[in-house]
């Protein structure tokens, strides 16, 4: 079993894996399009977390992590508890291409575009929210900066995330 990570799974997978590879997922893009009411915000003051938003012609680079057959059920249980906490994500099995050219199907969590937590905000509004929000797993800023830095360490460029990270640093050091 393969799992595709594009946000916090890059730096905090929370499960054992036997192989990891940079991978590309076609037809989706990484976006702060999900209001976070548990992990990085609250119901009264939602934060924002990344989700995969479907978009024709888009691609998203992230990490594919392989899980041994004996760890499959425990990993799925863990991921479902973590990712499906509010039902804003949908669990899908999607084709990804690994850096070495192999094509595999990966468990992937994507946004439900009909869910109340789905949103489209301009990047400045995203920065303002992320700079202030705090949830059960900590500050929204930590989530953003960890994701942006780990993408950079992997050699994955995401100009929008880099801009957001810089802008949020400006907002939080004033």
UniProtKB/TrEMBL annotation:
EC number: 4.3.2.7
Superkingdom assignment: Bacteria
Top-level EC class as recorded in UniProt: lyase
Protein name in the entry: glutathione-specific gamma-glutamylcyclotransferase
One MF annotation (Gene Ontology) recorded for this entry: glutathione specific gamma-glutamylcyclotransferase activity
GO annotation, biological process: glutathione catabolic process
One term under GO cellular component: cytoplasm
Alphabetical list of CDD domains matching this protein: GGCT_like (cd06661)
Keyword set, alphabetical order: Lyase
InterPro entries associated with the record: ChaC, GGCT-like, GGCT-like_sf
